[in-house]
Design brief:
The chain is α+β, with helices and mostly antiparallel strands and 257 residues long. The protein folds into 3 domains: 3-69, no CATH class; 104-151, SH3 type barrels, CATH 2.30.30; 169-246, no CATH class. It is built from 7 helices and 13 strands. The protein has helices at 3-7, 11-17, 25-38, 40-69, 154-167, 204-213, 239-242, and strands at 81-82, 86-88, 95-97, 104-109, 114-117, 119-122, 128-132, 135-140, 145-151, 169-171, 178-180, 186-190, 197-201. The strands form 5 sheets. A 3-stranded antiparallel β-sheet has the order 1-2-3, with no helix packed on it. Helix 3 crosses helix 4. The longest helix has 30 residues, at 40-69.
């Protein structure tokens, strides 16, 4: 059985989706052929296992992204510290960071030499791959590396600062006023429809006005009830994160004109 018949896709589409297997096509075809001759059910089982792995990986990715969006650590769930290009959990040590897009990296070797690379990745074996123009230019054993320096372009730092400034602002879902994300910002996690939604307000006053305008279904009671105790909607946020909706915030002081 040919790969084209087995996967049921055009050769061009197959090449795009299996670019990582370019050098393994012949070997893959032989293995599929052997499996098919021995037990056709084995091929279906392998495909099913792959699909299951992809689904689980997708769920895990969505979970991690949602936790990070809420400023939570994907590993332990605690609050993280946010820097311009780095996120760190001071409780368990988890961290992630962004490397320069417009700058480059300088790999300082133990012998005193310096290797410049547009970007780099640490592979499973621990070695560093230096990549420039989408091509691996060098592979450096981890034991030869002293430290790595990231060189940032000034405009990239300025753009990130502006992005962070916008992220730290909240547009009230009631009065549309834009305010800093501070201790006065009130939050509601509720499902007026089918899905759980997060609403943010500049003050408790706007939050209460919203609740009066959009009363909850009695059996849900999203405003007063913990999300952890409810399964009446399709949830988008972790139960631990939604506990903040039960906290009553201080009234925002009126600005004197």
């Amino acid at each position: 059985m040919s790969k084209r018949m087995f996967f049921g896709k055009k050769e061009e589409e197959k090449k795009e989706k299996q670019i990582a297997l370019v050098d393994q096509d012949d070997e893959l075809e032989k293995e599929i052929s052997l499996l098919t001759k021995g037990d056709k059910g084995s091929v279906s089982k392998v495909i099913s296992e792959v699909e299951g792995t992809i689904k689980e990986a997708t769920k895990a990715s969505i979970r991690d992204v949602k936790l990070l969006e809420e400023g939570r650590c994907p590993s332990c769930g605690r609050k993280t510290k946010q820097f311009l290009f780095t996120t760190v959990c001071e409780y368990c040590g988890w961290s992630t960071f962004i490397t320069p897009e417009k700058g480059h990296a300088l790999i300082h070797l133990k012998d005193g030499n310096i290797v410049e690379s547009k970007s780099m990745f640490q592979i499973v074996q621990g070695d560093i791959l230096g990549i420039t123009d989408d091509v691996v230019r060098i592979r450096i054993p981890s034991g030869n590396i002293s430290y790595i320096e990231y060189v940032w372009a000034d405009e990239e730092i300025a753009a990130r600062r502006e992005q962070r400034r916008r992220e730290e602002r909240v547009v009230c879902d009631w009065c549309q006023k834009e305010v800093d994300r501070d201790e006065y910002v009130a939050v509601i996690y509720a499902a007026i429809g089918t899905n759980q939604v997060r609403y943010q307000f500049c003050s408790e006053k706007c939050k209460r006005s919203f609740e009066k305008q959009y009363p909850m279904r009695i059996h849900r009671n999203c405003y007063e009830r913990s999300c952890a105790e409810c399964n009446e909607c399709v949830k988008k946020y972790e139960d631990e994160v939604t506990m903040e909706k039960l906290e009553e915030k201080k009234e925002r002081p009126e600005k004197k004109v």
